[in-house]
Amino acid sequence: MPTMTAAQRREQARVEYDAFLRSCPTNQLLGRLSDKWVGLAVAALSTGSLRYSDLARKLAGISPKMLTQTLRALERDGLVTRTVTPSVPVRVDYALTPLGTGLADLLKAVKRWAETHFDEVREARERYDADSDTDGTAAVPADR
Amino acid sequence: MPTMTAAQRREQARVEYDAFLRSCPTNQLLGRLSDKWVGLAVAALSTGSLRYSDLARKLAGISPKMLTQTLRALERDGLVTRTVTPSVPVRVDYALTPLGTGLADLLKAVKRWAETHFDEVREARERYDADSDTDGTAAVPADR
DNA sequence: CGGCATCCACCGTGATACTG
DNA sequence: CAGTATCACGGTGGATGCCG
Q1: Interchain CB distance below 8 Å, B34 and A31
Q2: Which domain, by its residues, includes A20?
Q3: Which range is least confidently modeled, A24-38, A55-69, B39-53?
Q4: Which of A15, A30, A101, B44 has the fewest C-beta atoms under 10 angstroms from its C-beta?
Q5: For the whole model, what pTM was predicted?
Q6: Nucleotides on strand D with an atom closer than 7 A to protein CB?
Q7: What is the CATH number for A24?
C-alpha cells in the first residue's frame, strides 16, 4: 500500500504544480495582465506620460491604493518609469518603458481579437443559456 | 456646494466604471484569461481532444470542482465542445472549437512574449528590489 | 499632491462528501 | 467515470486616516 492517502498525494501534486506555475513566465505575465487595473493603466499610458492624478481621473473607479499598487508593480517589472519632480507641490509622472510598450502592443492584439470575435462569444453564450433554461438546469448563473 | 461627498462621488464613479468595464470585450476576455486554470486548460486541449480525467491528470493540482467550472465557462463561451458518449461508464470528451483555437493562438503569442522578455523583467525586478533594500524602505515584499 | 498603513468585507478557491 | 453540493479559509481590493 502507498504511504499516502489519495488526498495527501493530490495535495502534494497541488503544491508542486503551484511552484511550477509560479516559476512559469507565461503564467506570471498572465497574472500581471489579469490584475484588474494593469491593462487599463497600460492602455492609458500608451498614448504618453501621465501624472498620478491624471491616471486617477482616467481610471475613474480606482482607489488610490490600487493605483499606487498597480504602478509600483509595473515599475518593479520595468514596464513603467516613475519620475518625481520635487517642486511644491510634488509632481510625479509615469510613462511606459520600451518594454512596457511591448506589453501595450500585446494588449492591443488581445483587444483586436476580443473585438473581432466577441459577437461569436456572445452568440455562444446566448445559445448556451437558452439551452440550459429549457432543460430546467440552472448551470452557470449568467456570468461570473 | 455639491450634494455629494467626495466618497459618494467616487463610489458612483466606481459603479459606472465597473459597468463600463464589464461591457468591454477586451476586459471580459482578460477576465477569462486570468481565471487561473483557463490558460492551462486551453493549452492542454490545443494538442487535441481530451477526456475529463485526462485533463484532471494534465492539470495536476486542480480540484474536480474547478475543472468543471473552468470547462463550463469555456463551453458557454463557445471555446470548447463537450461531447458525452453514453457508454458504461460514461465518457466525456472536450475539444477546442475554431474559436478556442484562436484563443490558443493568442495565448501562444503571450507565451512567446513572456519567454522573450522575461529576463528583462527579472533584471528590472532585481534592480528595483536592490534599490529598495539600500534605502531602507521595504516597498514591495518580493512579489504579490 | 502623492503615498502609505491599518482595518475590514467579500468572494474566489479548494476540501470534503455524495450522486448517476 | 464524471460530475454536484456544501462548507471553510485566505487573499484581494476598498475605505479610512495619517505623513512628506
Answers
A1: yes
A2: 11-131
A3: A24-38
A4: A15
A5: 0.85
A6: 1-6, 12-17, 20
A7: 1.10.10.10
Q: Which of A35, A40, A58, A45 is nearest to A98 (CA)?
A: A45
A129-138 average pLDDT score:
64
Confidence of residue B93 (pLDDT cuts 50, 70, 90): very high
Least confident among A113-117, B18-22, B116-120 = B18-22
Backbone phi, psi, residue A49, to 5°: -65, 145
For residue B45, give the C-alpha cell: 486541449
Burial of A133 (0-12, 13-18, 19+ CB in 10 A): exposed
For B34, which of A33, A61, A106 is closest by C-beta distance? Answer: A33
Quick one: pLDDT at residue A131? 77
CB A54 within 8 A of CB A47: no
Residue matched to cell numbers 498525494: A9
Condensed to tens digits (0 to 9), the pLDDT of residues A57-94 reads: 999 888 999 999 999 999 999 999 999 999 989 999 99
Q: Reading across the β-sheet that carries B91-96, which strands appear in turn?
A: B50-51, B91-96, B80-85
Residue B98 included in any domain: yes
Q: Nearest nucleotide by C1' from A14 CA?
A: C14
* CB-CB contact of A80 with A96 (8 Å): yes
Strand positions, DSSP E, A2-142: 50-51, 80-85, 91-96
Cα–Cα distance for residue pair B41/B46, rounded to 1 Å: 8
d(CA A111, CA A105) in angstroms, rounded, equals 10
Whether A19 is covered by a domain: the verdict is yes
Task: Taking residues B13-38, report their average pLDDT.
Answer: 84
The count of structural domains within chain B is 1
Residue B93 domain flag: yes
